[in-house]
């Protein structure tokens, strides 16, 4: 190394020393500029620009052609960590290879999503792995290990986990607050992140848009209190897009952006994703905060140091030593035969057989009718790459059974739209060059999906064009021309047949038919405006006319009233092909861009009404009807009369081939449900109820009968379980049992181990996944499955003492094929730590550490840290603290409160012993006052606190 070479360029030095040296050479202005997502180059030091963020949830996204693997929820359904690790490895290799050709491709990848699938109506259900924190962390750990690579120093890519923390709703996602009690925080939401971070392949996290306990996640005190204590590595915290501005603009948490930026930086945010590529606003806010004394240079240094740590690990400063740089330059790891085979393997392993009365697998000579809205579709989602290869269920069945044995009916209504003057909407033909989507087949090209302007707009004529009307439910539909082009609206407002699929951040291909006079208005959902027929073509009405039409006023004259002429009902086409088949396969589900996606939650578990009608028509025409659900989330469907039901997430480029091979029995299905499938909407909690314990949510606590339970999945083989042994030794529970394939085909089984505390002192899960193993067995073969689970996995968060506690007593160990299909069980007795009463006489009680509550929510004690509790909407709420030890006796009670209202304190269900209320409302929600009252108690009692009005309670103390 030359004496003139600075130490930060010396690969023989530890990364930490090299970061120190580089930090010492950067000016404050240069360091400040690094805080934006698009960090500029520092030419005087030879430092290249750097961008945090590259989407890679199930393949490299948004950067053109790439291998597209199954959606994350489908990868979760494989219950196969080694498979998922290989998928992550393939994705990271493609990221490196793509970057060699395009420096816009980033190596700081924003994936995986480890938010728990607590609520199946969450629009982003497709992005998570499971409702269970242990399964989620196991799959996420495998994916991050694949993304990271196995070199001890250099990383192939640097994964960032999304979205910190307790984020499970799109409705009001940037202003809603998740009320998360301490037990749920530690036992549920933090657990998925913690286990993955502790495994050592995570470069950072991304905070979510929502607030937790009244405080925006971008100010989360848990970033420092918990996250950064789980690893010795520097973790990079990248903001979500636009979230820093939300702190002022939508959340109104601060008055100025300088305050907000400073608070986020001090809380631990290191990279600000805001205002796209324009870094000037963030840089100006940081400089303003520095000038105002809200930040110090040390605050900036801490963030920049963590950024540089990631950049060094990615080999940016050591291209000659980076083991991944040379391979990427060849492009050899891009769209390889191995990756194509892996995409098919992952798609096959993700298929879950929910029910089978013997109709599956289908024999080679079977005549198959494949019907449904998704029968000839290979759908992509917002985080998909551009397809290089694709297969639909129809194509897969053609390939497997032969085109002469497969018939098809999409099952959509074929319609014409007649105008008031008797003419019809007409789609002008497009030549091949202009009609073809840019890029490759199925491209998610933003310009295409937003509505192209290089094609002629729709017009009208005497005959018109027969359109496929595809009803996705909840009143949302798409319209498709005979050549496959979807009607779309461009920025100029004209309606064209210009998209190969619905998609984009704002979907421009969806419409609604609204009854109006003797016909219908056709309202474009993207703009909210009705369609009108003008001399220069079909377009959406101007904004003022749209408002009038919506109100039924004068503007209605500008909106066309269409008569819907049905040429063929979808049910009739389904009936026709179903009647002549041996087996009917109805492919139903969702389009990932419609009625459930980022920015939009679902409203029901039910299948869209049109798809239910198609299913009924198929079943009426042919009892041998198989339902294949291809969806990003669970459905509640009537399966009683169906002989077979399967589910798979949208399976990427190999989805159709994989499904066909499962249906034909080439592969025995072995996917398992990663979340509960509820039977009815009535089984669901409120979308914003994050208390999985009190709300009895997920398989952990749900006491009803699910449609299909967590972990469920059938096989073409059968499996026997036996010879269970369990022993407590060396701080762990060792469990072993034998699994035997008692069937006639080679198949995979997913053996699952659950635990249940038999005599808990607090509410504990009905059963909780401890471990699982996917294994392959030939007919008649057996294998011994062994797990060693640390006793710490059986602990719970003891709110009485603010720490984990392993409770002594009996624990049932349950072994089987799902959370409800238990084949073997035994009980072990654990010597844990007995419960002791809360020492409230000595230290009082934090309001948030309740055992039970009703009518309350948790809010922020201050803008920086701490929790308080208040009654929901300023009404009345109750808090219960069990087994409170007042010692030899207390004579007074003190409450720390802010706001207006009253606090009532009672013992053991008796009447209020003390009522405390401020003389006047405090100046603000964070201006706490201490109120005192006489209060007599000794020994151990339950303490009940009632909150009335808009009062925040932070702490209850006792004296005397």
Structure explained in plain terms:
The chain is α+β, with helices and mostly antiparallel strands and 960 residues long. It has five domains: 20-56 and 79-121 and 128-328, Glycoside hydrolase, family 3, N-terminal domain (TIM Barrel); 342-411 and 570-683, Rossmann fold (3-Layer(aba) Sandwich); 420-559, Trefoil (Acidic Fibroblast Growth Factor, subunit A); 717-830, Immunoglobulins (Immunoglobulin-like); 840-959, Sandwich (Jelly Rolls). The chain contains 22 helices and 47 strands. Strands 13, 16, 17, 20, 21, 22, 23 and 24 form an eight-stranded antiparallel beta sheet that branches. Strands 10-27-26-25-11-12 form a six-stranded mixed beta sheet, with helices on both faces. Helix 19 links the parallel strand 25 (583-589) and strand 26 (625-630). Helix 18 (570-579) packs parallel to helix 19. The longest helix has 21 residues, at 81-101. It is globular, with a radius of gyration of 30 Å. The protein starts with 14 loop residues before the first helix and ends with a strand. The model is unreliable at 432-450 (pLDDT under 50). Residues 843-959 form the CBM6 domain. Pfam families: CBM_6, Fn3-like, Glyco_hydro_3, Glyco_hydro_3_C.
Total number of distinct structural domains: 5
Spans of at least 5 consecutive residues with low confidence: 432-450
Number-wise, the strands total 47
Using the coordinates shown, work out and report the CATH topology of the largest domain. Answer: TIM Barrel
CATH architecture of the largest domain: Alpha-Beta Barrel
**Percent of sequence in beta strands:** 25-35%
Query: How many distinct helices?
Result: 22
Distance between the termini: 71 Å
Shape estimate = globular
Share of residues in helices? 10-25%
The value of Rg in angstroms is: 30 Å
């Amino acid at each position: 190394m030359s004496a003139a070479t600075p130490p930060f360029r010396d690969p023989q030095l530890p990364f930490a020393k090299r970061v120190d040296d580089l930090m010492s050479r950067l000016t404050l202005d240069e360091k400040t500029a690094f805080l934006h997502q698009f960090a500029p180059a520092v030419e005087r030091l030879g430092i290249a620009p750097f961008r945090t963020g590259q989407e890679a949830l199930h393949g490299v996204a948004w950067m053109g052609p790439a291998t597209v693997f199954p959606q994350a929820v489908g990868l979760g359904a494989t219950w196969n960590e080694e498979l998922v690790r290989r998928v992550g490895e393939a994705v990271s290799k493609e990221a490196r290879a793509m970057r060699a050709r395009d420096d816009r491709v980033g190596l700081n990848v924003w994936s995986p999503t480890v938010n728990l699938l607590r609520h199946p109506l969450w629009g982003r259900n497709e992005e998570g792995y499971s409702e269970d924190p242990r399964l989620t962390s196991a799959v996420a750990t495998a994916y991050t290990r694949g993304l990271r690579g196995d070199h001890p120093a250099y990383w192939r890519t640097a994964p960032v986990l999304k979205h910190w923390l307790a984020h499970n709703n799109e409705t009001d996602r940037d202003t809603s607050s998740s009320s998360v009690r301490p037990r749920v925080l530690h036992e549920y939401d933090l657990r998925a992140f913690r286990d993955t971070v502790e495994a050592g392949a995570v470069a950072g996290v991304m905070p979510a848009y929502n607030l937790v306990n009244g405080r925006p996640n971008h100010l989360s005190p848990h970033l420092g209190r918990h996250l950064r204590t789980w690893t010795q590595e520097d973790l990079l915290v990248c903001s979500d897009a636009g979230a820093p501005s939300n702190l002022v603009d939508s959340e109104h948490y601060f008055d100025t952006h300088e305050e907000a930026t400073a608070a986020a930086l001090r809380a631990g945010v290191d990279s600000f994703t805001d205002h796209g590529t324009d870094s000037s606003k963030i840089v100006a806010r940081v400089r303003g905060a520095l000038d105002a004394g809200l930040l110090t240079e040390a605050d900036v240094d801490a963030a920049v140091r963590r950024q540089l740590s990631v950049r060094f690990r990615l080999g940016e400063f050591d291209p000659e030593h980076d083991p991944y740089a040379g391979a990427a330059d060849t492009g050899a790891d891009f769209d390889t035969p191995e990756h194509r085979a892996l995409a098919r393997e992952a798609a096959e392993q993700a298929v879950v057989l929910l029910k089978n009365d013997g109709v599956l697998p289908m024999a080679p000579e079977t005549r198959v009718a494949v019907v449904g809205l998704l029968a000839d579709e290979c759908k992509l989602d917002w985080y998909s790459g551009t397809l290089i290869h694709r297969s639909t269920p129809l194509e897969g069945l053609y390939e497997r059974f032969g085109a002469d044995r497969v018939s098809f009916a999409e099952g959509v209504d074929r319609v014409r739209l007649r105008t008031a003057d008797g003419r019809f909407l007409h789609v002008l033909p497009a030549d091949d060059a202009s009609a073809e989507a840019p890029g490759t087949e199925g491209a998610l090209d933003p310009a295409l999906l937003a509505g192209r302007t290089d094609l002629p707009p729709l017009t009208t004529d005497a005959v018109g064009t027969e359109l496929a009307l595809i009803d996705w439910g909840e009143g949302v539909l798409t319209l498709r021309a005979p050549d496959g082009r979807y009607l779309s609206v461009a920025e100029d407002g004209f309606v064209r047949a210009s998209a190969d699929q619905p998609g984009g951040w704002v979907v421009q291909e969806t419409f609604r038919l609204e009854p109006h006079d003797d016909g219908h208005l056709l309202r474009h959902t993207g703009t909210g405006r009705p369609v009108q027929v003008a001399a220069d073509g079909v377009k959406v009405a101007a904004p003022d006319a749209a408002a009038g039409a919506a109100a039924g006023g004068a503007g209605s004259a500008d909106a066309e009233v269409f008569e819907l002429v049905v040429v063929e009902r979808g049910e009739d086409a389904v009936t026709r092909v179903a009647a002549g088949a041996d087996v009917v396969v109805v492919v139903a589900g969702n389009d990932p861009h419609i009625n459930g996606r980022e920015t939009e939650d679902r409203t029901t578990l039910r299948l869209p009404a049109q798809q239910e009608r198609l299913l009924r028509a198929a079943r009426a025409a042919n009892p041998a009807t198989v339902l294949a659900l291809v969806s990003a989330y669970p459905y509640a469907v009537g399966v009683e009369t169906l002989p077979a039901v399967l589910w798979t997430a949208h399976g990427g480029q190999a989805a159709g081939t994989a499904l066909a091979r499962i249906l034909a029995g080439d592969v025995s299905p072995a996917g398992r449900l990663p979340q509960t499938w509820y039977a009815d909407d009535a089984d669901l909690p409120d979308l914003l109820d994050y208390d999985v314990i009190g709300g009895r949510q997920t398989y952990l606590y749900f006491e009803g009968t699910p449609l299909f339970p967590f972990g469920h999945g059938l096989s073409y083989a059968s499996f026997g379980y036996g010879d269970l042994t369990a022993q407590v030794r060396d701080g762990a529970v060792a469990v072993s049992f034998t699994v035997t394939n008692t069937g006639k085909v080679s198949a995979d089984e997913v053996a699952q181990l659950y635990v249940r505390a038999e005599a808990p002192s607090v509410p504990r899960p009905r059963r909780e996944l401890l471990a699982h193993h996917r294994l392959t067995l030939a007919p008649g073969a057996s294998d011994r499955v062994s797990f060693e689970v640390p006793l710490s996995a059986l602990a719970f968060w003891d709110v009485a003492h603010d720490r984990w506690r392993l409770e002594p007593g009996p624990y049932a160990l349950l072994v089987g094929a799902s959370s409800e299909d238990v084949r073997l069980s035994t009980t072990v007795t654990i010597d844990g730590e007995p419960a002791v009463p809360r020492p409230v006489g000595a230290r009082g009680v934090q309001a948030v550490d309740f055992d039970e509550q009703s009518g309350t929510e948790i809010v922020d004690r201050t803008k920086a840290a701490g929790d308080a509790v208040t009654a929901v909407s300023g009404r009345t709420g109750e808090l219960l603290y069990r087994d409170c030890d007042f010692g030899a006796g207390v004579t007074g009670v003190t409450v720390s409160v802010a706001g207006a209202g009253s606090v009532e304190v009672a013992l053991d269900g008796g009447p209020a012993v003390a009522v405390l209320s401020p003389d006047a409302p405090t100046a603000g929600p964070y201006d706490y006052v201490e109120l005192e009252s006489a209060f007599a108690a000794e020994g151990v009692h339950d303490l009940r606190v009632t909150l009335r009005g808009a009062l925040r309670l932070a702490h209850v103390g006792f004296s005397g």
